[in-house]
């Protein structure tokens, strides 16, 4: 028996329910390979979707049509013939709502582009919020850490607020879920918890966010036995893609996978030959017809970057579908710190996201959490994962009793114990809206970082000051983008362009990243014969962004 659907919209998930003759609660039904192929009668597009067992006799297939028209579908299942040979069709109409993810289609990584795009080629601005224990966030109540927040859903409150603030991605780990896949199977005891996870995935998708979710549990729960059981890993990977892959998602395999936290001795590195997470990536990629972006959450950049990743080689990329980098870099706040990791990510042709950095209230405060976003984009990353205490790891105790520093400020245990009801309103979260508006005021996806080597393009006023980041957009008339994050009165002076052109005039505008306000246009004059153009001093000792535009002299 099949329970179908009526008309559906492009890129919106539609669910088909099937009833098998056999009840699979005893033993589980995750080994039943049930597939449905969808074919668009008009344009010939074909999409393969694996089905998944959802308890008892119930199997489901989730499908997001990529184009309008009549889609015909046909099922196959050698393991249970009652699910095989079924056919039907569904009518698809264009999505007619306001959400960008459905207006332009799912996000993807395209070879040679250093940023993500929608299916129609529109650049996608990645601004993430971090929730490693998302499934612990109360769905039907405020929860004990709400403080003064009045809401009937902790989870929905945060999602809704982040949407208003311009966040586009929800970064999650399935920690503390009401299911356990670390035994290598999906059985009857897991179904209720997986249905509960559906509510979270569905709500995120309905609000128009992309869900960067990890598979399937924290690495320390991966036993040596399961890591060697490729059949079990393939079943879990296939099940995960079947259940969650018809929503707008990105795959972020496990967490800190290059650094082997699953073995008895820490910091023993996996290679592509012995990593079970490499195999999980292969299996997820094979099951995913939508080719959602796929990466692995890396360890800190002092341990793993591009060159020593299990996904570094062209062969690894081809086998696993790995097409972006989820980096864990902690740029210095007082100074730039070690820029080598950023340069390495920029040199690779895959887009990179500053996926995990210093979380506000845990390892930094509002200035640092804000600055990291500007530093990331101007250092060649195409996205930033913001995070705040008691939100990145809800009700967590990690480093709560320690003092921490980002090189600029000290974070004491009092800051760290702020409950989510306070942390959700940290000023830096609201300032992420300003950050996005700043970069979207120009074609940010064309930016190329200026790393300051050989004094190209920019010379700082004080050679001892490296607390700046810069990028440029090439063309007939160039654009230079700066972020000056020193907070010392000594470094209020900025510097000069060193590649200015004598036949061009230059104008600049300051942007206040705290208030989100632009200054009036400041005309800087022409470039000198030696190629210099002096930039204006910062309006005050705070952190400021600056856009310098080049134009034809006299216009």
3D architecture notes:
This protein has 555 residues and is of the alpha+beta class. It has three domains: 92 residues, Immunoglobulin-like, CATH 2.60.40; 319 residues, Glycosidases (TIM Barrel); 105 residues, Jelly Rolls. The chain is built from twelve helices and 34 strands. The protein has an eight-stranded parallel β-sheet with strand order 21-20-19-16-15-14-13-22. Strands 25, 27, 28, 30, 31, 32 and 34 form a seven-stranded antiparallel β-sheet that branches. Strands 2-9-8-4-5 form a five-stranded mixed β-sheet. Helix 5 crosses helix 6. It starts with a strand and ends with a strand. About 1% of the residues have low confidence.
Architecture blueprint of SSEs:
Elements: E1 2-3, E2 8-9, E3 14-19, E4 35-40, E5 46-50, E6 52-53, E7 58-63, E8 69-76, E9 87-93, H1 100-103, E10 107-109, E11 116-118, E12 123-124, E13 126-131, H2 154-164, E14 169-172, H3 188-206, E15 210-213, H4 224-228, H5 230-244, E16 249-253, E17 259-260, E18 268-269, H6 276-287, E19 294-300, H7 314-320, E20 325-328, H8 340-347, E21 352-356, H9 366-378, E22 383-386, E23 404-405, E24 410-411, H10 413-416, H11 420-423, H12 427-439, E25 448-450, E26 458-460, E27 468-473, E28 479-484, E29 495-497, E30 504-512, E31 517-518, E32 522-526, E33 533-534, E34 544-552
Parallel strand pairs: 2-9, 13-14, 13-22, 14-15, 15-16, 16-19, 19-20, 20-21
Antiparallel strand pairs: 1-3, 3-7, 4-5, 4-8, 6-7, 8-9, 10-11, 11-12, 17-18, 23-24, 25-27, 26-29, 27-28, 28-34, 29-33, 30-31, 30-32, 30-34
Helix pairs in contact: 5-6, 9-12
